[in-house]
Amino acid sequence: MVEFVLVGTLLLIVILGVIQVGLVLHVRNTLAADAAEGARHAANVDVPAAEGGTYAQQLIAESLPGRSDAVCTGQEEEGPGDIPLVRVTCTVVVPLSLVPLGDGVTLTVTGHAVKETP
């Protein structure tokens, strides 16, 4: 009986840790997809690069309920060979709700796209 309680407690902590890692990876992958989509949107002709960050924030608010606190910025930069690029960077703090080991994990992801020229 005592062994079951000891092993069961450890097993429960491991299972909750695995689920928490899965949730963090899901949020990271969704953020990366939304940042890339924001960069693609800002890469269109006559669309300012800053609008890519706003668009990515809207996508994050729709795809991840409760994650409206994401901060996304869009900017133009020069790529290799002077190719104009758009970079959208999104940052969000994911709280560790299942395994309370701190304030949370700060995730920062970046999406890139080649800027169209007229």
TrEMBL record:
Bilayer-crossing regions: 6-25
Start and end residues of each TadE-like domain: 1-40
Pfam families membership: TadE
InterPro entries (alphabetical): TadE-like_dom
Keywords, alphabetical: Membrane, Transmembrane, Transmembrane helix
Protein name as it appears in the record: Pilus assembly protein TadE
Phylogenetic classification of the source organism: Bacteria, Bacillati, Actinomycetota, Actinomycetes, Frankiales
